[in-house]
Specification:
The structure holds two protein chains of two kinds. Chain A is α/β, with parallel strands linked by helices. In chain A, about 30% of the residues lie in helices and about 20% in strands. Chain B is flat, with a radius of gyration of 25 Å. Classes of the chains: A alpha/beta, B alpha+beta. The interface between A and B is large, with 104 and 84 residues.
């Protein structure tokens, strides 16, 4: 329930709704979309990436001298959990064709394709299978299926959204494979939203020129993920799922090929040497680093582990200077601060409004532009709404959606959102939501080509952990597509590679080399990575943990 | 239902002094008493008390079902269930998270199943032991009609199972409470897969588009786009029409 002092502002939202409804029914944009210059201006003044201290040069590693997001540079200039010489690499505890690091959408898709092509794999996952951002995507997946649309239009939208920094070959593979992914998932039993005649329901997302968002109510990621997981578990003879077993370092062979990893049992604290002919990193992103103190929409394990182990082994990173803030994170109530409110709400006609109930931005700008416009409205123009805990936010008018699509539409099409708010006495069918940008996506990552190959032979990467697909800003619905397209491609190419590769003696020398580099660069750090889990232990509790040794965030 | 309760009303005015003392209550985490903020979620309270969660947290937003929690309230005989990430604490709440749910998950080949009652007879025959006690529905933190979808499965009504189990998070509370030892959430997943694969009407346009891609219909246009400079692409992008 909203506090009394917000009532006058809520009243204004209700008063302007009729007029905004009339506007929304026309074919014209409800607010003028920004030009290239206007986009540049709002980004440079208000996007968190443009704050002076938001980036710095990384001092060591392959990308030495490149500009990285400050928190990312700090995470990478860190020490390993292990001392390499205590491991006997001549006797691996487990051997497999492909080690897949990460049990989200990309990892499961990779494992399924690898199994289909005859490879055995181990999925090493830090939490449970499917504990991943893939599970949480609500709004949908882009794919150029409709007759008005084409993969090339999808390509153009993605390139423009990414400020033309995307690697074109990656965007082509992404967009051209879209329709086939829709089909592949359906054959596995994915339930897509459809019209009576069997045609797929499509909606707009931010920055799309055609309606191409495919959905499964607002549980899209959850339904895809549970379909993939169920199928993974149908092949225990081919796919060995190791839960609560993160990979904490990669293993190379003498000639520099990737040859598996060191796995760590989070519960028994044992380490295991796993030898693999090929390795695929599918660890997702880093939202739990809470860059610039932002709340995040990300799952508990999103701590950028894949970046760390790949970088330490010598993999090249791309666009690590760019962070995505989702425009509509929840700003009220406090208990759900930062939670994702799907962009599909705006795709269905929901409008962002200031405290006077006025539109101030086109509702479907690309995410970085939209977020920056929200921040400008709150911070520069003072037109935000303050919450009891001191957060600022703008309204996201959802009742308008009921007027546009009919009563009961929100409950039917957005059950997760409806449920999220009704717990706190807010019915989104009759009252708007209060929103503010929330840390959402790692735009950059480990550089790949269209075969998911990195600069390290035998190391493949897919999904959010990669860099280049989305340039410096991802569009809604392209990450769900990304993890499916590249998850599948990584499974395919890693399998081909694994069939012929000959590995030499295993080595962890790169860990010592990295440690030496830290010393040479005179970096004194206590940080141990991968971080594995964020810590929300209050300071006063930590102070009383008098005999606890923290290794990174873990005791 | 405690999961439907509304949050405590917030103070009327924005607090300027953010260090103002919070209202605190006592919860019993696995029997041990801790003082925690009155407006915390169960997960927030566990972390506030000083626990580093390993099992029992996933998406933290109500989608993954990792944080199933059972609790009781003072002077109340009932066992309540909730997701730790979205359920608020109450004074005197005695709670325990379930680290994992032992669940029946047989392997099967979806290509060899029929989209009717025979699929359930083969894969999850125990559903026919359902005694219609409705304990599963009462245990569901999403307030789903779990028993109704098990009954629908027994009748082979796959569409109904799909629809009623759609918002299921596989938290497992139904399965752990079921006297007939059914793994309801996996039955729901099987039904959704059967529906998506066999019963959902085919999209002709999708078939057509995939054929076009295979026949390399977009090759020429892609090649042109890939050759363009950033400025040329930019021009084309800002000139594109909108649906």
């Amino acid at each position: 329930m909203y506090p009394e002092y917000m009532r006058p502002s809520l009243k204004k939202v209700a008063q302007t709704r009729k007029q905004r409804f009339e506007l929304a029914k026309t074919d014209k944009p409800v607010f003028p979309p920004m030009s290239a210059e206007e986009r540049e201006e709002v980004l440079s003044k208000f996007h968190p990436d443009y704050k002076p201290d938001s980036k710095r040069k990384i001092k060591i590693g392959v990308n030495k001298g490149n500009i990285f997001t400050t928190e990312v540079a700090e995470m990478l200039e860190s020490r390993s959990r292990i001392k390499p010489d205590i491991f006997d690499l001549s006797k691996p505890d487990l051997e497999t064709d492909i080690l897949i690091i990460g049990g989200g959408g990309a990892g499961c898709a990779a494992a399924l394709i690898a199994a289909e092509k005859g490879s055995k794999s181990i999925i090493s996952t830090k939490l449970r299978l499917g504990d991943a951002n893939s599970m949480m995507s609500q709004g949908g997946m882009q794919a150029a299926v409709s007759a008005l649309d084409s993969p090339t239009l999808h390509f153009l939208d993605a390139m423009g959204g990414g400020h033309f920094d995307n690697k074109p070959e990656l965007v082509r593979a992404l967009t051209e494979n879209g329709p086939d992914v829709v089909k592949w998932l359906e054959e596995l039993g994915m339930v897509w939203d459809k019209n009576e005649d069997g045609s797929l329901v499509v909606r707009h997302g931010g920055g799309t020129s055609r309606k191409r968002m495919h959905s499964s109510r607002d549980y899209t990621g959850a339904i895809i993920m549970r379909t993939l997981m169920d199928e993974v578990r149908n092949h225990p003879e081919k796919i060995d799922v190791q839960e609560f077993m993160p990979t904490i370092e990669l293993i190379l062979d003498k000639s520099g090929k990737c040859a598996g990893g060191i796995l760590y049992n989070l519960e028994t604290e044992e380490y295991f040497v796993v030898k693999a002919k090929a390795t695929i990193i599918t660890t997702g992103g880093y939202g739990r680093l809470h860059i610039r103190g932002f709340d995040t929409t990300n799952h508990y394990g999103a701590t950028g582990d894949g970046l760390v182990i790949a970088y330490r082994a010598g993999a090249k990173l791309l666009y690590m200077d760019s962070v995505q803030y989702h425009p509509t994170g929840a700003a009220f109530p406090e208990q759900i601060g930062g939670f994702l409110i799907t962009e599909a709400i705006r795709g269905a006609g929901g409008q962002p409004l200031n405290k006077f109930g006025e539109l101030f931005v086109f509702p479907r700008e690309p995410r970085d532009v939209e977020s920056s416009a929200f921040i400008r409205e709150c911070e520069e123009r003072g037109n935000g709404i303050e919450t009891p805990s001191g957060r600022l936010g703008v309204w996201l008018d959802s009742p308008l959606i009921e007027m546009l699509h009919g009563e009961g539409y929100l409950d039917k099409q957005f059950p997760a959102m409806h449920r999220q708010f009704i717990r706190y006495g807010i019915d989104i069918a009759t009252e708007p939501m209060l929103v503010f940008p929330s840390l959402h996506y790692q735009n950059g990552g480990i550089e790949i080509n269209a075969k998911c190959e990195t600069n390290i032979p035998g190391l493949y990467v897919a999904g959010e952990a990669t860099g280049g697909v989305h340039g410096r800003n991802r569009l809604m619905g392209n990450s769900v597509l990304d993890y499916n397209v590249y998850g599948r491609l990584s499974g395919k190419y890693a399998t081909n590679y694994a069939k012929s590769v000959k590995l030499g003696a295993l080595s962890l020398q790169h860990i010592q080399t990295y440690e030496d580099e830290l010393k040479k660069a005179n970096i004194k750090t206590k940080l141990i990575t991968p971080i594995l889990l964020p810590s929300y232990t209050p300071e006063d509790v930590r102070k009383r943990q008098l005999t606890a040794q923290y290794e990174g965030t873990l005791r | 239902m405690p999961t439907k309760q509304t949050a405590k009303k917030k103070s009327e005015k924005p607090k300027k002094n953010k260090s103002a003392p919070k209202e605190m209550i006592t919860v019993l985490i696995m029997g041990k008493a801790y003082k925690v903020p009155a407006d915390a979620t169960i997960m927030g309270a566990i972390e506030y008390a000083g626990y580093q969660i390993k099992r029992g947290a996933g998406c933290r937003e109500g989608f993954c079902g990792a944080c199933a929690t059972a609790y009781r309230l003072p002077h109340d005989y009932k066992i309540y269930t909730g997701l730790a990430c979205t359920t608020l604490v109450q004074d005197g709440m005695w709670l325990a998270q379930l680290p994992a749910i032992p669940a029946e998950k047989p392997t099967y080949d979806i290509n060899k199943l029929e989209p009717d009652v025979t699929a359930f007879q083969k894969i999850y025959p125990e559903i026919f032991r359902c005694v219609a006690c409705n304990t599963c529905s009462k245990a569901c933190p999403q307030d789903l009609e779990v028993m109704d979808y098990i009954q629908a499965a027994m009748r082979g009504n796959i569409e109904m199972v799909m629809d009623l189990s759609f918002d299921c998070l596989s938290c497992g509370m139904c399965a752990i409470r079921c006297p007939a030892e059914i793994t309801q959430f996996n039955v729901g997943i099987l039904a959704k897969r059967l529906y998506g694969k066999y019963l959902s009407k085919e999209s002709k346009q999708l078939k057509k588009r995939i054929k076009e891609v295979i026949e390399r219909k977009f090759d020429r246009e892609f090649k042109q786009l890939m050759k363009m400079t950033k400025d040329e692409l930019k021009k084309k992008y800002y000139e594109r029409d909108m649906e």
